[in-house]
Design brief:
The complex is a heterodimer of chains A (116) and B (112).
Chain A (H helix, E strand, L loop, with lengths): L2 E5 L3 E2 L5 E8 L7 E7 L5 E7 L6 E3 L7 E6 L4 E6 L8 E9 L1 E5 L3 E5 L2
Parallel strand pairs in A: 2-11
Antiparallel strand pairs in A: 1-3, 3-8, 4-5, 4-9, 5-6, 7-8, 9-10, 9-11
Chain B lengths: L3 E4 L2 E4 L5 E7 L12 E6 L6 E5 L3 E2 L7 E6 L2 E6 L8 E7 L6 E2 L3 E5 L1
Parallel strand pairs in B: 2-11
Antiparallel strand pairs in B: 1-3, 3-8, 4-5, 4-9, 5-6, 7-8, 9-10, 9-11
Classes of the chains: A mainly beta (116), B mainly beta (112).
Chain lengths: 116, 112
């Protein structure tokens, strides 16, 4: 059974940094591209980043370019999102999702709150 | 970015009655590989999104057959033949043909 478990969400001050993790199991992690998607409180879903199977190709939404970095460790079956220069508008639940043409499996999400 | 527009944004439905949600994309969604990466997601209260329908009309494993998808070009529809209590939640259309993936605003389905 495919399982994605995010962790690392926390309360952080504006301008601060945080690293999120997404632990994958139940499938061959290294053969799938992976997404990060976020959802601000009471709001809709917004794509954040996409990374290729080996992590060599990455895409970012304009509003996180230069501040967020996606990476992965295929030996540990883990996806990461390094977030820096955090702003109040980055407050959201962050989901990782498997890319299979569509986003077919989603984790339960981890909450990032940016506030002083 | 491709804009996805859903209607209605709210859908009160009596138990056992049908529901229908429409979604329009700002441009065609056919990928260079020939597939159309359009899907519908369900998000129950307090839960993460869950894939219901992929590539316009294919039900994801475990999805009840009361859910069906249709459409072509830039216009797509999700239908629920008979709404059940467990169907309450927000439904999103999304495209993953082009990065970034983009989502409709969401349609809240509630029991009348």
């Amino acid at each position: 059974e495919v399982h994605l478990v995010e962790s690392g969400g926390d309360l952080v001050q504006p301008g601060g940094s945080l690293r999120l993790s997404c632990a994958a199991s139940g499938f061959t992690f290294s053969t799938y591209w992976m997404h990060w998607v976020r959802q601000a409180p009471g709001q809709g879903l917004v794509g954040v980043s996409l990374t290729s199977r080996d992590g060599s190709t990455t895409h970012y939404a304009d509003y996180v370019k230069g501040r967020f970095t996606v990476s992965r460790d295929n030996a540990r079956n883990t996806l990461y999102l390094h977030m820096s220069s955090l702003r109040a508008e980055d407050t959201a639940v962050y989901y990782c999702a498997r890319h299979n043409g569509v986003l077919d499996y989603w984790g339960q999400g981890t909450l990032v709150t940016v506030s002083s | 970015d491709i804009v996805m527009t859903q209607t209605p944004l709210s859908s009160p439905v009596a138990l056992g009655q049908p529901a229908s949600i429409s979604c329009r994309s700002s441009q065609g969604l056919v990928h260079s590989d020939g597939n159309t990466y359009f899907s519908w997601l369900q998000q129950r209260p307090g839960q993460p999104p869950r894939l219901l329908i992929y590539q316009i009309f294919n039900r994801f494993p475990g999805v009840p057959d009361r859910f069906s998808g249709s459409g072509a070009g830039t216009d797509f529809t999700l239908k629920i033949t008979r709404v059940e209590a467990e169907d309450v939640g927000v439904y999103y259309c999304m495209q993953s043909t082009q990065f970034p993936p983009t989502f409709g605003q969401g349609t809240k389905v509630e029991i009348k």
